[in-house]
Amino acid sequence: MKLTRRQIMSTVAGAAALGTFGVARGEEDEGGVGNVNDIVNVAWGTITGSPRDEVDFQDDVFMAEVIETDDESAVVIHFADGSKLTIGENASVTIDKYVYNPSATTGEAAIKMTKGAFRFVSGSIPKENVKLETPTVTIGIRGTELVFDVTDDGETEMSTVSGEADCTDGAGETLRVAANESIVVDKNRRFRGRVRRFLHRSRSLAVADGLDGARKRWRIRKERRRRVRRRRRNRRD
Questions:
Q1: Between β-strands 60-61 and 34-40, what pairing exists: parallel, antiparallel or unpaired?
Q2: How confident is the model at residue 15 (pLDDT cuts 50, 70, 90)?
Q3: What distance in Å separates the CA atoms of residue 83 and residue 219, rounded to the nearest whole number?
Q4: Which CATH number covers residue 154?
Q5: Is residue 231 part of a domain?
Q6: Helix, strand, coil % (nearest 5) of the chain?
Q7: Contacting residues for 154 by C-beta, under 8 A, at least 6 apart
Q8: Is the predicted pLDDT of residue 26 greater than 60, yes or no?
């Protein structure tokens, strides 16, 4: 049986009441672990048990949701702990796990970046409890801003803009990547060389220059708009 978005939101809200999620919530963010803070053109979200659906400005984002973008499209997700994920064009990412208790500033997050370009800025969840993954590398963070480019075959180029990142490849080797450093992990899940002493520039315009930079050069096919909340909650009913 497929769940409606209303049913999903009700389930998540019930979990919050039991302490599973401690996400601060109000009338506009009930049920989500974050929301769409900015968007250019078209992005899609697939919630477990529901079909893929177009994502709009300020829509909620849910745990276990898959977010995908079209050509010349990008989206920025703000999570409840203040962390931020920019997703570039032709990308796919899954919010594998997200638990946050704002009163105690505790929680856990796991995000899987399957393909495309991304910029991640950490928030209030303790850094040791945040795990970022691509098909070829697992990253533990330390007060961090990171930039990723992940090709269709999983090859990953990652740069640390600030903080530090511990990167582990498929063979179990771990390299610490400090600020202004980068690494490459090939499609066979092995480091290509060692830590490089420079930041790579993302191939995604939206990740490299931000969504405002992308707006200046991309063809805008859809104006950013906020969906009416009742329509957002009930559109599967």
A1: antiparallel
A2: very low
A3: 29
A4: 2.60.120.1440
A5: no
A6: 15, 40, 45
A7: 115, 134, 135, 136, 187, 189
A8: no
